[in-house]
């Protein structure tokens, strides 16, 4: 399949891209080649292959929820740039108005 410069410009407009004439000329053969590869994928005999959403079987990874010791508060706060009232101090992002 060979795309014309007008078709490349149309696709660029749909993608909201502004292309120069040189870019259109350079992209036309590249996009045509990509479409050719897409056509070849459609030729694969796959009547006996079930549609899937992922090429590999997916399984959930679970682990037991076990209680274990945590770090001490002082050890956690030791690496904080600022500490206030025994907590991490961060800049306010929500105003108290309304």
Write the CATH fold name of the domain at 5-42: Histone, subunit A
Classify the secondary structure makeup into a structural class: mainly alpha
What is the subunit organization of this protein? single chain
Mean pLDDT: 88
How many beta strands in the DSSP annotation?
2
Helix content: 25-40%
Any idea what the shape is?
A: flat
CATH class of the domain at 5-42: Mainly Alpha
Please, could you describe this protein's structure?
The chain has 98 residues and is mostly helical. It contains three helices and two strands. The protein has a domain at 5-42: Orthogonal Bundle (Histone, subunit A). 38% of the residues lie in helices and 4% in strands. Strand 1 and strand 2 form a beta hairpin. Helix 1 (5-14) crosses helix 2.
Short précis:
The chain is mainly alpha-helical and 98 residues long. 38% of the residues lie in helices and 4% in strands.
Notable traits:
Histone, subunit A, mainly alpha, 98 residues, 3 helices, two-stranded antiparallel sheet
Record the SSE blueprint.
Elements: H1 5-14, H2 21-42, H3 73-77, E1 83-84, E2 87-88
Helix pairs in contact: 1-2
């Amino acid at each position: 399949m060979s795309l014309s410069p007008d078709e490349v410009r149309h696709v660029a407009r749909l993608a909201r891209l502004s292309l120069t004439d040189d870019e259109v000329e350079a992209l036309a053969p590249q996009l045509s080649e990509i479409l050719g590869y897409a056509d070849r994928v459609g030729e694969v005999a796959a009547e006996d292959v079930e549609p899937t959403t992922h090429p590999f079987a997916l399984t959930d990874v679970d682990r037991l929820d076990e209680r274990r010791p945590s770090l001490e508060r002082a050890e956690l706060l030791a690496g904080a740039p600022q500490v206030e009232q025994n907590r991490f101090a961060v800049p306010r992002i929500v105003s108290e108005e309304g």
